[in-house]
Design goal:
Elements (H helix, E strand, L loop, with lengths): L5 E2 L4 E4 L5 H8 L2 H4 L10 H13 L7 E6 L2 E11 L4 E8 L8 H16 L4 E7 L3 H9 L3 E12 L2 E11 H9 L1
Parallel strand pairs: 5-6
Antiparallel strand pairs: 1-2, 2-3, 3-4, 4-5, 6-8, 7-8
Helix pairs in contact: 1-3
Length: 180
């Protein structure tokens, strides 16, 4: 699959570039940003280089990764993990703390989900988050996703067991939401 750039009202979602390392470090080296994510903290230059290199080399047939850019600067990321044999994908997203509460995460994720339903002929897109991360599951709800359940004590993050909330949206629900 070719690399894809998506444009929304305020954002450009584009493939990561090697020149994005400093921008990624700038937002990722924030304890509040990393609180619910399986990323190292503090986030060093080496971490940033490794992340961006993996993103640049990612196979877009199964794992598209976008840099979320605002005014040309990478301020977050969106990725999809596609299971084409089941026609489903999971989405992940993050945004620099300075841009929280402005609807940007939902705006970017909405563009990625719409593209993914068409590009991969998906039947479902899902997302997960630490149950304590209410901001993340509120984004899922803004996207029209339904809460499908909570897996209790499902993962360990920085030595803490966490409950994981699962959300999903079916293609029929997505198409229906566009008509509403």
């Amino acid at each position: 699959m070719d690399l894809v750039t998506l444009t929304t009202e305020r954002l450009v979602l584009r493939p990561w570039r090697l020149g994005d390392v400093e921008a990624a470090i700038a937002y990722a080296n924030d304890e509040a940003w990393s609180r619910y994510l399986p990323v190292p903290f503090p986030y060093t230059f080496q971490h940033g280089e490794e992340f961006v290199a993996r993103a640049v080399l990612s196979n877009w047939d199964t794992h598209p990764l976008w840099a979320v850019t605002l005014n040309g600067l990478a301020v977050g990321g969106i990725d999809l993990h596609v299971r084409s044999e089941d026609n489903v994908a999971s989405i992940g997203y993050s945004l620099a703390q300075a841009h929280w509460g402005k609807g940007l995460t939902a705006e970017g994720a909405r563009a990625a989900i719409g593209w993914a339903f068409d590009a991969f002929e998906l039947e479902k897109v899902s997302a997960t988050a630490d149950l304590l991360n209410t901001q993340s599951w509120r984004v899922m709800e803004k996207l029209g996703m339904q809460r499908e359940g909570v897996l209790r004590s499902d993962r360990i993050l920085r030595g803490r067991r966490m409950d994981v909330v699962h959300y999903g949206i079916l293609k029929s629900e997505w198409v229906g939401s566009l008509k509403a």
